[in-house]
Design brief:
With 337 residues, the protein is mostly helical. The chain is 62% helix and 5% strand. A 4-stranded mixed beta sheet has the order 2-1-3-4, with helices on one face. It starts with 7 loop residues before the first strand and ends with a helix.
Length: 337
């Protein structure tokens, strides 16, 4: 975890190791210094249920003191930057214990809790002054990136393909021409079409968020209502894109082709396929000028960086204004036949 200062759990399996093992206790303390909460599974099957596991062979202290090589095994179910970070943290704890042991030996002390405590009390010749440099921004990875990215991409794709194609079909079959003979205004018809497509987008987004939460344990952060509000505004904007495309397209194939190509292009440039934070600066700047970029940047702020809801105010205003402008354009270019 990178977006919050949480203590992560690490399962430690020490075989038949005695509870008073000196080096094992020191290792546990050093791991806790690295922000781990140590749990001690009772069985091998229970150990396998944990995502982070550190296995220590029996006779750990005796072997180390006797100069016998000891192999500690760290395992994590997922890979990527999170795994690399864990390897560094666990390795740092292990090497710190080794350094404690070496210094104790140089001082002629046997490894005991008292000797380690006395070692910690020795004034340090080298100190490090640490000050806050600002809030850390950890690049979203795993489900934090994939689930919002897929949600944003396919919400747009459905609106710009299915939504546009249905409008083309209604025009080809003469259904829209019948509406021309009714007292319903062109603007009212466009708003009605928009409401139908907006409803489809809302169903898709709600289903995607529920599925991501239940199936993949997606954590939407502390601002869930802001996340839902942001996605609802995004659905309203993409619904208007579908109406505009449906009014411009002449055939079903044309609507599908334009919708698919445009969606994939905007998804790639908007950060749906990979974290935009790993892209060149020009792509990060471009992201803020396209709708998929607005949605992804807002989701990263709320979900990954735990920013307040006010941080996505520009995104909401931008997409809301875009919706109104596109609705005006849609009413102007709407064709009955």
């Amino acid at each position: 975890g990178g977006r919050r200062d949480t203590v992560e759990k690490l399962a430690l399996w020490s075989g038949d190791e005695a509870a008073d093992d000196v080096l094992l206790s020191q290792l546990v303390r050093r791991l806790e210094d690295r922000k781990y909460e140590i749990v001690h599974p009772q069985t091998q099957d229970e150990l396998d249920t944990w995502s982070r596991r550190l296995t220590i062979p029996a006779g750990f202290s005796d072997s180390v003191v006797a100069g016998v090589p000891v192999k500690l095994r760290f395992q994590r179910e997922s890979s990527g930057l999170g795994n690399d970070y864990d390897v560094v943290r666990v390795g740092r704890a292990i090497y710190t214990v080794l350094a404690d042991l070496i210094v104790s030996s140089e001082l002629g002390q046997t490894p005991t809790p008292e000797s380690f405590a006395a070692l910690d009390s020795i004034p340090r010749a080298l100190t490090l002054q640490v000050s806050l440099a600002g809030e850390r921004r950890t690049i979203p990875t795993g489900f934090e990136q994939a689930i919002p990215g897929i949600l944003v991409m396919f919400a747009m794709m459905i609106m710009m393909t299915t939504g546009a194609v249905l409008l083309v079909i209604e025009r080809q079959q003469g259904l829209l021409r019948r509406l021309a003979y009714t007292p319903i205004s062109r603007t009212a018809i466009v708003w009605g079409k928009w409401l139908g497509k907006f409803s489809i987008g809302i169903v898709q987004i709600v289903f995607g968020m529920i599925a991501g939460t239940l199936l993949f344990k997606m954590d939407w952060g502390d601002n869930l209502l802001a996340v839902i509000g942001l996605m609802f505004v995004y659905a309203s904007f993409t619904a208007t894109l579908g109406i505009v495309l449906g009014s411009l397209a002449r055939t079903e194939g044309q609507a599908v082709a334009i919708g698919v190509v445009a969606t994939n292009l905007l998804a790639a440039l908007g950060g749906c396929w990979w974290p935009i934070e790993v892209s060149p600066q020009w792509m990060q700047t471009l992201q803020l000028w396209i709708p998929t970029g607005w949605a992804m940047d807002g989701l990263h702020k709320l979900v990954s960086f735990a920013d307040p809801p006010s941080s996505v105010t520009p995104h909401v205003i931008g997409m809301s204004v875009g919706t109104l402008v596109l609705m005006y354009v849609s009413a102007r270019i709407f064709r009955y036949e």
